[in-house]
Amino acid sequence: MKGGPGYETLAFLEFELVPAARRLRRDGQAVAIGGRAFDLLVLLATHAGEVLSKRALIQGVWPNTVVEDVNLRAQVVNLRKVLGGGGDCPWLVNVAGQGYCFTAPVRRPLTLYGADDGWQEEEALSA
After folding, report:
1. Which of 12, 25, 43, 100 could be 60's S-S partner, Cβ–Cβ 3.0 to 4.6 Å?
2. SS3 of 113, please?
3. Residue 108 DSSP label
4. Which of 46, 32, 118 has its CA nearest to residue 81?
5. Alpha carbon distances (Å) from 117 to 12, 28, 120
């Protein structure tokens, strides 16, 4: 997965996600996460509040590769475990017949927004 808009540090819940460094921290501690699950998290977090279709997620995480939906589901399960919610993770919602939505509020650095506290919070929509 290549850099682009929204590729800066993102913070949500107790996590800090740094895509360029391929780093995820929880309360300041490094979190073990597989490469595909990491790419999926980056894609979902940079589009927090949006329902992303399975096709868009597969194309974003496995570019130029033929992949079955079961691979995406497996990475969603892995990501839910990393986020600490297991199968009941409220921050990664399956929207029936449409795709997945990351619902946690995501904060971005002020350098892009000029916020007084150093972070700009974006409201994630409930699915």
Report:
1. 43
2. coil
3. E
4. 32
5. 15, 19, 8
